[in-house]
Amino acid sequence: MIAAILLALAVPSAISAPLMQHSVERPDGSRITYWLGETRRRSSGIVLVMQGTGCEAVSSKPNLRHAAEILRPGTRALLIDKVGVGSEDRTPAIDGCSQRYWDQYTLSLRVQDCLRVIADLRRQPWWNREIVIFGGSEGGAVAALLAPLVPEARAVIVLSSGTGVRVGDLIRAAVPPAMASEAPAVFAAAHERPTGRQRWGGLSYRWWDDAVDIIPARSLVQSTVPVLLIHGARDQSSSVSAARIGYGMVRNAGKANVEYREFAELDHFMRTADGTDHMDQVLGDAAKWIEVRKRSWR
Question: Of the chain's two ends, which shows fewer C-beta atoms within 10 Å, N or C?
């Protein structure tokens, strides 16, 4: 299933700074739960780390904090739960996720939730108005969509996410042929009736209705923020061709501050064929890229 393919980032667990829970209200009165890492610094930047597909609570995934700590040591990690996830929803699970998650979760809502959390953080005196946005797989698509919308963004990093084609086409290329042949009819049905009661590939019809025609690279074109695109040539979940197309689209639009790094031996999870995990090295390389760009932030 697609939800199993597009997993969250897979970096090794490590002892990380504790997370503090916070929340902010949506227009419908529900709460967005978000988590901040601690730091001893009076003034601090933020690293927003976004996981891929699924309804796991971000507080249960130490790999996300670990990624933030590699990318910008000493800053605060920011993790945001999706709607209907974790302490934000206590309804019975259906197929592993709450009905509220199925009914409401979309890429567009996730972007809106991120923007509301960032707006809430603007009231905090410790924030120095610097934020690095990082996402992998589905989270990478969200990072791209956020890029032109956050004035405080200083860098955006997209990992293992084919930004250059429609999300629907990206998924069709990743699933078995039998599923791929079902996709056009499923997408049409989702547009006609975008409900959380029907699901395909581990995602609701509501999600598909919202996501099918999105091309994340179009948002990167609109952004003035430096962008780093990272992809493994052996990625079987998000085609490397879609990543290359996204990079070409952004460059051809005249955006000079975008860089594409492709790793010939690595897959979707930054692993070699023998299973060796290289995520820390890839993130460390991205951290060096951030440090170079940091010189022009002020």
Answer: C
Question: Is residue 134 within 8 Å of 218, Cβ to Cβ?
Answer: no
Torsion of CA 66, 9, 77, 247, to 10 degrees: 120
- β-strand pairing of 227-232 with 199-200: unpaired
Spatial separation of the C-alpha atoms in residues 286 and 178, rounded to whole Å: 37
What is the pLDDT averaged over residues 240-257? 96
Tens digits of residue pLDDT in 98-156: 999 999 999 999 999 999 999 999 999 999 999 999 999 999 999 999 999 999 999 99
- What average pLDDT does the segment 33-46 reach? 89
Rounded CA-CA distance 24/80 in Å is: 11
Paired sense of beta strands 227-232 and 258-263, if any: parallel
206 pLDDT exceeds 60? yes
User: CB of 116 within 8 A of CB of 32?
Assistant: yes
The residue behind tokens 């639009």 is 253
Phi, psi of 140 (to 5 degrees): -65, -40
Residue 286: closest CA among 131, 70, 78: 70
Burial class (CB in 10 A: 0-12, 13-18, 19+), 219: buried
Beta strand ranges found along 38-176 (DSSP E): 44-50, 76-80, 93-94, 97-98, 127-136, 153-159
Whole-angstrom Cα distance, residue 197 to residue 130? 40
Q: Are 153 and 146 in contact (CB under 8 A)?
A: yes
Cα–Cα distances (Å) from 6 to 85, 228, 269, in that order, read 18, 20, 10
